[in-house]
Amino acid sequence: MKNLTATLVFTSVLAFSPSLYAGSCGGGDHTHSAQEKAMSIFNKADNNSDGFINAGEFNAAKLSKYGSTFTNLDLNKDKQISKEEYMEVFNRHHNKKSAGA
User: Fold this and answer.
1) Is 26 a domain residue?
2) Partner residues linked to 53 by β-bridges
3) Residue 42 lies in domain
4) Residue 82: strand, helix, or coil
5) What mean pLDDT value characterizes the chain?
6) How many domains does the chain have?
7) Is residue 22 situated within a structural domain?
8) 21 pLDDT exceeds 60?
9) Between vectors from CA 100 to CA 73 and to CA 41, what angle results, nearest 5°?
10) The domain spanning residue 42 has which CATH number?
11) Is the pLDDT at 16 greater than 70, yes or no?
């Protein structure tokens, strides 16, 4: 239950943050989807660009501010978070939200 709560808090922050839903680039008039913003957060945290976030990168990027722990996002428990794991948690939350709307 604690893991579920932390995961829901994490994805709720992403869901309700206006800056994560839409943002303009360089004064342009286009916006970015929530998924694009989530991937941007992932890519910034992935300091060595290996496609994974390790515990050190997670802590350095202060990703816990989004309400989840490294362990909650590391779905296969291999001590790293892949883009797929990160987006699975994100999409799982958004699909539940859409189904309940």
Assistant:
1) no
2) 81
3) 2-16+34-100
4) strand
5) 80
6) 1
7) no
8) no
9) 30
10) 1.10.238.10
11) no
Which structure tokens are listed for 14?
């992403």
Distance CA 83, CA 100 (A): 26
Global pTM value: 0.67
Q: Where are the alpha helices (DSSP H) in 1-101?
A: 2-16, 18-21, 34-45, 55-60, 70-73, 83-100
For residue 25, tell me if it sits in a domain: no
Cα(40)–Cα(46) distance, integer angstroms: 10
38 falls within a domain: yes
Please state, in angstroms and rounded to a whole number, the distance separating the CA atoms of residues 91 and 11.
9
User: Token digits for 101?
Assistant: 């709307």
Predicted confidence (pLDDT) per residue in 35-83, tens digit: 999 999 999 999 999 999 999 999 999 999 987 899 999 999 999 999 9
Of 47, 28, 92, 23, which is closest to residue 55 (Cα–Cα)? 47
Q: Does 24 have pLDDT greater than 90?
A: no
- Helices 34-45 & 2-16 angle (0-180, nearest 10): 110
Structure tokens at 27: 């004064």
Between CA 45 and CA 49, with CA 48 as vertex, the angle to 5 degrees is 80
